[in-house]
Design brief:
Largest sheet of chain A: 5 strands, mixed
CATH class of chain B: Alpha Beta
Distance between the termini of chain B: 21 Å
Shape of chain B: globular
CATH superfamily of chain B: Glutaredoxin
Oligomer: heterodimer
Strand content of chain B: 25-35%
CATH architecture of chain A: 3-Layer(aba) Sandwich
Strand order of the largest sheet of chain A: 6-5-4-7-8
Radius of gyration of chain A: 21 Å
Distance between the termini of chain A: 71 Å
Number of domains of chain A: 1
Number of strands of chain B: 4
Number of helices of chain A: 6
Structural class of chain A: alpha/beta
Order of helices and strands of chain A: HEEEEHHEHEHEEH
């Protein structure tokens, strides 16, 4: 027995500790523990866009989780704007996409851009979800807006409201003149890659 | 995680015997590089953009730790496989060493 044990120790060349994590930006962040509802595989897209590149971005005013309201046109001439529609709070991919943007603020700053996060959830739900997102400390640096009532009206205006009432996972990049410069109505099951958005942000004038 | 790396490096008895790597599942190379630079991660990080590794290990939630014994005959044996982080790097390292039988 002793000999066997000694032999097996001798045979160990080394140890490898593998740390598996999901971060910036898929799967599931640790902060959410078991509170994420698994939606399964969904139809990649389920809406018809109502805007196109070069269009003036439709204006809107929505309530923000932090209080008050945000109007898109308030940024005109001031900031480039990225609108990130995500389908719903407490769902798998969404719960990683925004934490990713949260640690990638510098890319937005470099392009003098603000990010507006929008879902069709109501304010209390968004409050709880975004708080859970930041259990590791800190806060989201960007406004989170509720497109709850009239239900999904802004998503509908852009043509990204799905037939089941949630929005697409969609990104719109809008320049300081209010013109739409980039649209990505992404496969709802996947998270858009950070580098693609960073590249688009790099094309904007600061 | 950086503290765990430093704790491993500080242990002379583990020099050259224990290595730490990270796998960013669902993340692109760009995202992993950004993460590495932003948090000054001193150990190798790998991207698992298409979730291939994640699927192979059973689609675990994260953070997840796997301890692997690398044997002289080229085989590898898992001695630790568990969900969850740690609050004390030295205690976690002690657990790893004890579990491994090194």
């Amino acid at each position: 027995m002793t000999i066997k044990k000694h032999f097996s120790l001798k045979c160990i060349l080394g140890l490898l500790v593998i740390f598996v994590w999901i971060s910036a930006a898929s799967g599931q962040s640790p902060d959410f523990k078991q509170n994420i509802y698994q939606v399964g595989k969904l139809k990649p897209t389920d809406s018809v866009l109502k805007v196109k590149l070069g269009d003036r971005a439709p204006d809107f005013t929505l309530p923000a989780v932090g209080g008050g309201e945000v109007t898109l046109s308030q940024y005109r001439g001031q900031k480039n704007v990225v609108i990130s529609f995500v389908p719903a709070a407490w769902t798998p991919v969404c719960s990683d996409q925004w934490p990713g943007y949260n640690i990638a603020q510098e890319f937005f700053d470099q392009s003098d851009a603000i990010l507006l996060g929008i879902t069709v959830d109501n304010i209390p739900t968004l409050y709880a979800w975004t708080n859970q997102m930041c259990m590791g400390g800190g806060k989201l640096w960007f406004p989170v807006l509720s497109d709850f009532y009239p239900h999904g009206a802004v998503a509908e205006k852009y043509g990204v409201l799905r037939t089941d009432g949630v929005s697409e996972r969609a990104l719109f990049v809008i320049d300081k003149e209010g013109t739409i410069r980039y649209i990505d109505v992404h496969d709802i099951n996947d998270r858009p890659r950070l580098e693609v958005l960073v590249k688009e942000l790099g094309k904007l004038s600061k | 995680m950086n503290e765990l790396y430093q704790a491993i490096e500080a242990r002379k008895d583990l020099k050259g015997k224990m290595k730490l790597i990270g796998i960013g599942t669902g993340n692109s190379d760009f995202e992993v590089d950004f993460f590495r630079k932003k948090y000054e991660v001193p150990f190798p990080l790998f991207s698992d953009e298409d979730y291939a590794i994640h699927k192979a290990i059973g689609e675990v939630r994260t953070p997840y730790f796997i301890g692997v014994r690398l044997k002289g005959d080229g085989s590898a044996e898992v001695f630790y496989s568990k969900l969850g982080g740690f609050s004390n790097a030295n205690k976690f390292l002690d657990l790893m060493v004890k579990s491994s039988g090194l």
